[in-house]
Design brief:
This protein has about 475 residues and is an alpha+beta fold. The chain is built from 10 helices and 8 strands. The strands form 2 sheets. Strands 3-8-4-5-6-7 form a 6-stranded antiparallel sheet. The chain has a two-stranded parallel sheet with strand order 1-2.
Length: about 475
């Protein structure tokens, strides 16, 4: 009984020693959880910032593409301005030459009028002479009044010459009047055409200059937006770098905390092992002392101590459990006529072309979207297999197709407008009260002919193929 009490005291002492080791401060899980929560929150902020960076970079790319397209358009506009200025200069030269012709014509008119006046005087004198003779002088009287045969011959020749001269005067008189009228008509028509062309070119040039001004302003605006977005990207990247530094710092703190707690656990395990060895040694010492008192009870005492030590050792084991989380992701006009081609062929030039007077008559102009109104219509119909011959002007196009009523407008019909002259502009009706054509202010574009400028200038002329 006494032996059992001593062994119980030894076992209790060993257990108390182990208990004191277990009382070492536990792993500070809350501290690590706080750090990990902070880290996750910062990572969430980084994800948001990086998403903003991606969006801003995509915006910059879109702005750069738009800027490149606009730059090309400005270059086309500048070339069109140069070409149209050259055409204006050429027209001015032609107007100057026509004015010179008019000046020369005026001089010719003065000479013609002078000749006409002279002839009028001659005819007037002859008329007066005829009236003074009573108007009864006959060819026979002239001949019978001859004093001799020679004088008779002279009188016959004189009469014939007078009659022939009068006829020549009248013929030349009519010829001069006709020549004068023809020259006046030709020069006046030419001057009117050149003046109208000059006015149209100057008006068109003003529109193109305005278009260039708007494009340049838009280009500057795009550059400003690109710079603002680039600055935003730089700021976002700076924020992202700061957040990344915070993540690294917190990770370092978590690692340091884990290392510290690992050291605590290791120290605990070492203390447990040392305590177990000390308890075993104390038990053995106690067993030896007890053996001296009672050899008979030695075997049972050692068995009891061994069982106690075995029980203590089993309480020092720890079990760890791992949990796995699985995330699931969810996913996922034409017309029966070829005219539909004529209607849509020019779409590729919308916002990508420029109006050039006389343009569209070479492959280079076509490739670069440089058309005047008539050349564009020729080209569009040609894409639909409707060949209108060599490119002419709006007046030439009046000879093609069948004229129909404006109340029966159908997509694909050719429509005319009175601008600087009658039938001065032409396009292709696309339906819905709109037409496509090369407009002087925009290049190839779809315009509304139901209201506004084009409604006011539509003259009701419609041709169908």
């Amino acid at each position: 009984m006494i032996l059992r009490k001593k062994l119980l005291v030894l076992s209790t002492t060993a257990m108390l020693g182990l208990g004191s080791i277990v009382a070492v401060p536990a792993v500070q899980a809350e501290s690590i959880n706080d750090l990990q929560n902070q880290q996750q929150a910062i990572q969430g902020q980084r994800s948001g910032v990086q998403s903003e960076i991606d969006t801003a970079l995509a915006k910059i790319k879109a702005l750069q593409i738009e800027q490149a397209t606009l730059t090309e358009q400005i270059l086309r506009i500048e070339q069109a301005i140069n070409d149209n200025n050259a055409k204006i200069d050429e027209t001015k030269v032609q107007i100057a030459e026509t004015n010179a012709e008019i000046k020369k014509l005026k001089e010719d008119i003065v000479a013609l009028q002078k000749r006409i006046e002279q002839r009028n005087e001659v005819l007037k004198e002859r008329a007066v002479s005829y009236q003074e003779s009573g108007g009864n002088v006959s060819y026979v009287e002239v001949l019978l009044g001859a004093t001799s045969f020679g004088n008779f011959i002279d009188r016959v020749g004189a009469v014939a010459t007078m009659v022939e001269a009068d006829q020549d005067i009248l013929t030349q008189h009519e010829a001069d009047k006709k020549e004068l009228e023809e020259k006046q008509t030709a020069v006046e028509t030419k001057l009117a055409d050149l003046t109208s062309m000059k006015l149209e070119l100057e008006g068109m040039l003003a529109q193109i200059e305005e278009q260039k001004s708007q494009s340049v302003q838009l280009s500057a605006s795009l550059k400003g937006k690109e710079q603002e977005t680039a600055t935003l990207v730089a700021d976002l990247k700076k924020r992202d770098a700061n957040l990344a530094a915070q993540v690294v710092k917190i990770q370092g703190e978590i690692t340091a905390e884990l290392n510290r707690q690992a050291e605590i656990v290791a120290a605990k395990k070492r203390a447990e092992a040392e305590a177990a060895i000390a308890a075993e040694k104390a038990a053995r010492e106690a067993a030896k002392n007890i053996a001296k008192e009672s050899t008979k009870k030695k075997s049972s005492s050692e068995s009891f101590v061994t069982k106690s030590l075995s029980s203590n050792s089993s309480t020092s084991n720890e079990n760890n459990n791992d949990e796995n989380n699985n995330d699931e992701n969810t996913v996922s006009i034409p017309s029966s006529r070829n005219l539909s081609v004529a209607i849509t062929a020019g779409n590729k030039y919308i916002g990508n072309s420029v109006y050039v007077f006389g343009g569209g008559r070479s492959q280079s102009d076509i490739n670069n979207g440089r058309f005047d109104c008539s050349a564009f219509v020729y080209w569009a119909y040609d894409q639909a297999g409707i060949n209108l011959g060599s490119v002419g002007n709006t007046d030439t196009l009046l000879n093609y197709g069948t004229r129909v009523s404006a109340s029966d407008l159908q997509p694909g019909d050719m429509v005319f407008f009175d601008t600087y002259k009658k039938n001065g502009h032409v396009g292709i009706y696309v339906g819905g009260g709109k037409f496509i054509g090369s407009q002087s202010s925009t290049g190839v574009a779809i315009a509304n002919m139901s209201s506004g400028y084009w409604a006011q200038h539509f003259n009701g002329r419609v041709h169908r193929f």
